[in-house]
Design a protein that fits this description.
This protein is of the alpha/beta class. The chain has one domain: Divalent-metal-dependent TIM barrel enzymes (TIM Barrel, Alpha-Beta Barrel). The chain has nine helices and eight strands.
Length: 247
């Protein structure tokens, strides 16, 4: 696939505790990497046995741990515990939501902890006031330019917020990683790409234009049969790759 990395967020299995079988399913569908959804009921970063198992399962399945998604409502201590996973199981990016309060203080503490374990922090584009593409770029360039922060561009959230292509161009100088999912323009459905209204062929051409060559991480809705979702994701991945090839 032309050297591109395609991955799956374990959000797909978020209804249950993470198991080896979940990673086996991802690897069996020829994905390269995972983003770990680190909420305690799914993966408890404070549980050393869970971290040990994760390292073993990733080795067995030959999957790379690309990123870890911090708990959306986690404290600084919760996020720092997640970062400590990188001491045993290295990963590139911590994806997190912009804190609702004490933004500068929290992000300074998190970026310092992340730097200590070789991780970069990526703030996720959300369909929310204060956390959309424009707000995050303003935050990074005008308030927190001294911190080592970047952006996780979430296609589904950007689509809900308005002009996805304008948002992608806006964040291009800060782009570290991605979330791919689709919707009908009204609710955050986390559908497989091409199952909603996003024009993915155009979106991939725009992504290539801004020079992004990092991982493409599918962040899909849990519920139902995840194997069927992964099968649809494989077909979507093939279509996405053709969009790159034809550009």
């Amino acid at each position: 696939m032309a050297g591109r990395t395609y991955g799956i967020s374990t959000r797909l299995f978020h209804d249950a505790e993470l198991t080896r079988e979940h990673l086996v399913h991802i690897a069996a569908h020829d994905f390269d990497a995972v983003e770990l959804y680190a909420t305690p009921h799914h993966f408890d970063a404070r549980d050393q046995s869970a971290v040990d198992q994760l390292a073993e399962w990733l080795s067995d399945t030959r999957l790379a741990l690309h990123a870890v998604h911090a708990p959306a409502d986690g404290t600084i201590e919760d996020i720092q515990a997640v970062l400590m996973v990188a001491r045993q199981v290295p990963f590139q990016f911590l994806v997190m939501h912009r804190p609702a309060s004490s933004t500068e203080r929290i992000l300074q503490a998190v970026t310092e902890a992340a730097a200590g374990v070789g991780v970069q922090v990526a703030l996720e584009v959300l369909h929310a006031r204060g956390a959309n593409a424009n707000a995050l770029v303003t935050l990074l360039e005008e308030e927190l330019d001294e911190l080592d922060l970047g952006i996780c561009f979430d296609f589904g959230h950007a689509h809900l917020d308005g002009d996805l292509h304008e948002a992608l161009e806006m964040v291009s100088g800060h782009l570290l990683t991605t979330h791919l999912h689709d919707n009908g323009g009204k609710t955050d459905d986390h559908l497989v790409p091409y199952a909603g209204e996003i024009h993915w062929d155009t979106a991939m051409m725009e992504l290539q234009k801004v020079g992004y060559d990092g991982a493409l991480i599918f962040e899909l809705q849990p519920g139902g049969d995840p194997v069927q979702v992964l099968t649809r994701a494989v077909r979507a991945r093939e279509r996405l790759e053709k969009a790159f090839v034809t550009f």
